[in-house]
Amino acid sequence: MTKTIEKSISIIGLGPFSQFFIPFLKPYFKDISAWNRSNKLDEALALDIKYVSLKEALSKEIIILSTSVSYFEEMLKNHFLDINPNALVFDVASVKLKPVEMMHKYLPSTCEIIATHPLFGPQSGKNGIKDKKIVVCPVRTSKLDCVIDFFKNELELNVLIKTPDEHDREMAYVQGLTHFIARAVSGLNIQPSDQKTDAYQALLEIKKLLGGDNYELFLAIQNDNPYAKQVRIDFIKKLHELNLNLK
């Protein structure tokens, strides 16, 4: 039997990931609200959730920050007084050091903070999220065990506990490098072939899975992870070295 969580929850940012993920939360939360910088009332109505002002969204007991990292500081700094001082705040950004730094800086000291990175999205989770991975970075919380229990036993996710630094160091390769390659491959306009090998098929799959990702997400993965630039530099250097050895 699904257990109802008697707490209000809001999602700040109603982009593709939020629209994908909200249906997985709906069986557990009866009071779900959302706000977005551009008007997305129709999307909220389609999801059967409340569309509210930013002030009201920031007053909820659980707040999920699902807006772009580039907007984090502006929003938190300018709306500090509207944030529920007793809220449990999550973020779902693809990088962790920068958003955690900003949440530390601008959220009331009484807020609890858990940084997360769901390692799935509308494409990879289109057939469900069971056994998909989610990174959890405890920042300032007494509710970690309850949150992990919810992720594991209700959403059936595979929970990985990391520090923000561990997350970004690893994701510079896992996500930064793969998205960089996918974006480049998409630019080459490679096509299916009846001569394809398994390796070529893998390249096509990377293009299909990642090449069409939102460009804002791509920029965040590359620019907001402090370790991503060096990985790109090392990769390009290796390509150059390989090319120099060829005729």
How would you characterize this protein structure?
α1 links the parallel β1 and β2. The chain is α/β, with parallel strands linked by helices and 247 residues long. It has ten helices and eight strands. α7 (164-188) crosses α10. The protein folds into two domains: 9-162, NAD(P)-binding Rossmann-like Domain (Rossmann fold), CATH 3.40.50; 166-244, no CATH class. The model has no long low-confidence stretch (mean pLDDT 93).
Which descriptors would you attach to this protein?
247 residues; alpha/beta; Rossmann fold; 2 domains; eight-stranded mixed sheet; 8 strands; 15% strand; globular
List the SSEs and their pairings.
Layout lengths: L8 E4 L3 H10 L6 E4 L5 H7 L2 E2 L2 H4 L4 E4 L3 H10 L9 E4 L5 H10 L5 E7 L14 E8 L3 H11 L3 E4 L2 H25 L9 H13 L4 H9 L4 H17 L3
Parallel strand pairs: 1-2, 1-4, 2-3, 4-5, 5-6, 7-8
Antiparallel strand pairs: 6-7
Radius of gyration: 20 Å
- Spatial order of strands in the largest sheet: 3-2-1-4-5-6-7-8
Please estimate the helix content. Answer: 40-55%
CATH level 4 superfamily of the largest domain: NAD(P)-binding Rossmann-like Domain
Q: How many separate helices? A: 10
Order of helices and strands: EHEHEHEHEHEEHEHHHH
CATH class category label of the largest domain:
Alpha Beta
Look at the structure and give the mean pLDDT.
93
